[in-house]
Amino acid sequence: MSANPDPALHPLDRATRLVRNPDGSLSGHTDPAYANMVGPFGGVTAAVMLNAVLTHPERLGDPVALTVNYAGAVADGEFRIDAVPMRTNRSTQHWSITASQGEAVTTTATAFFALRRDTWSATESGFPRVPPADEVPSRDSSAFTTWTRCYDMRFVKGYLSDDSKAGHEPDSVSTLWIRDEPPRSLDFVALAAICDSFFPRVMIRRPRRVPAGTVSLTTYFHSDARQLATVGNRHVLATARASRFGLGYHDQSAEIWSEGGALLATSHQVVYFKE
Amino acid sequence: MSANPDPALHPLDRATRLVRNPDGSLSGHTDPAYANMVGPFGGVTAAVMLNAVLTHPERLGDPVALTVNYAGAVADGEFRIDAVPMRTNRSTQHWSITASQGEAVTTTATAFFALRRDTWSATESGFPRVPPADEVPSRDSSAFTTWTRCYDMRFVKGYLSDDSKAGHEPDSVSTLWIRDEPPRSLDFVALAAICDSFFPRVMIRRPRRVPAGTVSLTTYFHSDARQLATVGNRHVLATARASRFGLGYHDQSAEIWSEGGALLATSHQVVYFKE
User: Fold this and answer.
1) 3-state helix, strand, coil in chain B (%, to 5)
2) What is the pLDDT of residues A219-254, one digit of tens each?
3) What is the value of pTM for the model shown?
4) Cβ of A263 under 8 Å from any chain B Cβ?
5) Chain B neighbors of A273, CB-CB under 8 A
6) Which of A118, A120, A206, B144 ranks highest by number of CB atoms within 10 Å?
């Protein structure tokens, strides 16, 4: 494998590219485009863990659930992934995935895949009331962190404030239109990353910048590959809120909607914060 | 170890009891009190996975996040658990946990533990408007499934309907007061089990009984051991709803509150359903 970025690939495909080693493990490489304050953007790490299963020769069906645990900082450079099918049933499959650098485990994950089939369906959450994406200005957050340049983010509500703003926000809700920048067709890899593209809720609510980072992320996919493909490279609507802050951690629940009102994914995480 | 139930133990402690083997693995045994339609109640399985870490000599701090994947049916009888600390940091620890029977993996899990410390805190979700527990009648669901006898469940809203009820419910929300039966002081083991004590949302929403079962469950604990202990053996308020049903699966998000209005845990799951 080569550690050199390939300019012909979309940055997300470059950052999530995995090469299979003779022992069955995979090798990947962090990409400077997705640099976060420390190590890579957690959304790309989640996408890499998912991609280790998506590209696995024994993979069955589409992802339904993905949990990623950020166990330690990922250093810039190469990493190794081991993806193990722990149990394969007739139409479902459970995976255990571990990323490491040298002897240190950096990330653990579990994924549940299934052959999806049409059934009774209903959406109980409501699509947020928002203006269309082209009526909302794009915000540049790259002074805050590099990886945001890989997205076009149009905030309807809950943009990151600066520290000078006095007092607490009434809630931690953020709602934005988002797509990959440059545009790229939505798939599970891109959607997994977008589910972690929210700034930590504690910074919206207080609002002030404090040390904070995701420690565990769980995403449920409500679409199959065919439905995701119909989204194309259009913006998706992303909304997130916290329910409880305290004892050094807070949760976050998010929804990702297509422009057409399909709930593509719901995603939950627990976030470390200081102070 | 003995497979014989010990009548001096609370049923939950009996069902989650683990014996350490010379090779470091743990042995447990399903308990008939928590029998579900197939295998044991998933909440007790989650509690057992968590207990494998709670009782581990290398365990650091309190649980913050727990994800349990129900990979295959658990047969009545003995099971083996392997709990591995994947990464231990200064004040945090990531675990990987696997339950098996013979050669078959039945359950996988990851857990994140941490030394919790006082920080800024806020609760953004609202405590549901409900009458006190002693004004709500207890419901007997044991005709539906055995394990419900291990709980005192007082439904404010969203009790399981029978098939004869016509039409769809407007939403899938259930809200109930619940405690272990017989009463038992709340701890992480009990709370982990309660987080899975909701009937599948699809049966509330449609409402009809269909084959359904949890495939992956994630719980975030917002209290430390000391705070949980203050709940004692009083009821907690549990509320759950789904956001999307389709392609054979639906999600569920739940909140567990103390009587006094502390949000003890938020919990999410994805549920298989047929039709």
Assistant:
1) 15, 40, 45
2) 999 999 999 999 999 999 999 999 999 999 999 999
3) 0.96
4) yes
5) 119
6) A206
